[in-house]
Specification:
Number of helices of chain A: 13
Number of strands of chain A: 12
Strand content of chain A: 15-25%
Order of helices and strands of chain A: HHHHEHEHEHEEHEHEHEHEHEHEE
Distance between the termini of chain A: 76 Å
Strand order of the largest sheet of chain A: 2-1-3-4-5-11
Oligomer: homodimer
Shape of chain A: elongated
Radius of gyration of chain A: 26 Å
Largest interface: A-B, 45 and 45 residues
Largest sheet of chain A: 6 strands, parallel
Chain lengths: 333, 333
Amino acid sequence: MATIREVARLAGVSVATVSKYLNGTKVREANARAVEEAVRALDFKPNEIARGLRKSSVMTVGVLLPELDNLFFTEIISAVDSVLEERGYSTLVCVTHSDPEREQRRLDFLRRKRIDGLIAVPTTAASDFATIAGDLPTVFVDRVVSVPPGGKCSSVLSDNFAAAYGAAEELIRAGHTRIGVLLGPDSNYTPLERRAGFLAACSLHGIGAEKLLIRSGEYSIEAGYRMTRELLRLPDPPTALFATNNELTIGSVKALAEAGITAGEGISFLGFDNRTLAEVSHPPLTVIVQPVEEIGRTAAEELLRLIDGEPGGKILHLPTETIRGASVTNPII
Amino acid sequence: MATIREVARLAGVSVATVSKYLNGTKVREANARAVEEAVRALDFKPNEIARGLRKSSVMTVGVLLPELDNLFFTEIISAVDSVLEERGYSTLVCVTHSDPEREQRRLDFLRRKRIDGLIAVPTTAASDFATIAGDLPTVFVDRVVSVPPGGKCSSVLSDNFAAAYGAAEELIRAGHTRIGVLLGPDSNYTPLERRAGFLAACSLHGIGAEKLLIRSGEYSIEAGYRMTRELLRLPDPPTALFATNNELTIGSVKALAEAGITAGEGISFLGFDNRTLAEVSHPPLTVIVQPVEEIGRTAAEELLRLIDGEPGGKILHLPTETIRGASVTNPII
DNA sequence: TCAGAAACAGAAAACGATTTCCGTATTTTC
DNA sequence: GAAAATACGGAAATCGTTTTCTGTTTCTGA
């Protein structure tokens, strides 16, 4: 592949002139023409590696996340990538499989690649910014990491508390008091927030925790399925179910279908995130959806700000949206 | 961030020694120790950019695909990434949004990054390898591109012909002769293969094309929905439906649900790809699933072979799998 | 026409690693 | 114990750009 040297020779100018012309510094008209032609003739493409070395910036941000086979994450990356690409950055994706050791290795890898910034959905639990990213501009997504005020990192996530609060109100307003809630692992941040939001709304309406049937487990289809079956088998089963994540929603829907229960008839159902499943269901499900696209965009924009040296330390909560289907109805007493 | 020079100084050796030690060449025990310690003390991480420049290989492969918000693609990337990472390669993902111009720009970008190989789901239609990738080792996924025998590229995809052939047999065996088929755009390669496979099986069983109700349109939920409604409204509607892609399947399921038709009772249904929807449906759907994980792995392995200089020119067809639910039954005459 | 200013071109020094090549230590062999 | 063989360390070249800094043109205005 042609180098800038060969272009210079063919054009009869110095490499400095070629470089300047290609980077927008003014050169003599005749030279510009000659360079242009040489570039075309040799199909010259500047070596970004050499460029990156000299400029000590490769215009790359790392993205560190648990999995690639999960639309929640990939839709976020998609938005992140759109924003970053527009500003000339490329995106280097690394998968952790939720393994802390692997996470550390991949992070090391990204640092060796001299990334300019990081977008991370960290797995490591009780971690602060410094141990994860050092002094790298970083935006955490769907996680809150202890954020030094004005430091080089921020967080972007849905307002999980408000989402669950709203969900509870939705169900209570319809007349439910005996509600089953399917939560993710207690070790994660978001399930705790969702639990807290839900409980807050309930207690405000005088519904004690003892009437609630809260279950927590993995974020998986199987867990959702299992927990739903458990709840349905209770002597006094709940009149409404709230599944707080995509996988739990899928599992729950499956269990209901198997039990011959139509959401909104035998029991009310409030799901999370899976817009498509909600639409395709009959009747359509009521679901709370996270603004994935906006989360991605916001994270990318905040990261660009951090890279530009502006202070971070923000925690950006984005509102969720409730898509009303017909799966939340009055309870049959 | 520390450089190899500072490590050398602190360890009291030359940069050559540091480099050698870190790259596995034997050095004196005492020096090894000193380097080790200096590396730790300075938290030295080799600059992969400088390294890449000198070695003229950055151990990176590009991935060029239409979208990131589609599990079919992201599951493939996931597998690709696993295989490549194990061999020390990183994956640089670029999205084309199915826009040929953008595809060209992103490809240019990847070449400037001096990637060692490419995995591509090209959008550009009638294109041959040379115009897309030049002499870059390339594996095309879910597309067949005119492959120079022994050249530096190969293709990996499902055996779409066989999949559709099998689908037709499945339905014919159950007794259906009046079958509605939902296909993707005629301008793509895979819909044509699927159509051909389906027709081949039908004609073998003496079912003329005139009895079939073949519709083609976009690969979208809306198209699937629309085409299904059209078919259901016919004076003599089909007794079975075959949706040939994930989105078409979703749209079709939605239309059926809305029409109050249960797949496998009023009408038989054969879907594609969406394992989760198939499982969660009631009754579970019979679907043909593509071996996404294996497609990804195979593509990555083939690419590694090409990068190692072995000849390409292969077209690798991987068998699909039929997951039998209860949505294909005998027709009610 | 010429001095001074402004515009531009080019040689060479970075950037941070790897690698070659040569010289010195160390070991082996008789 | 000396010569030959081997092992190892280090100076310097290299990868392909950008950028600085100096030197040369070209332009301007009286």
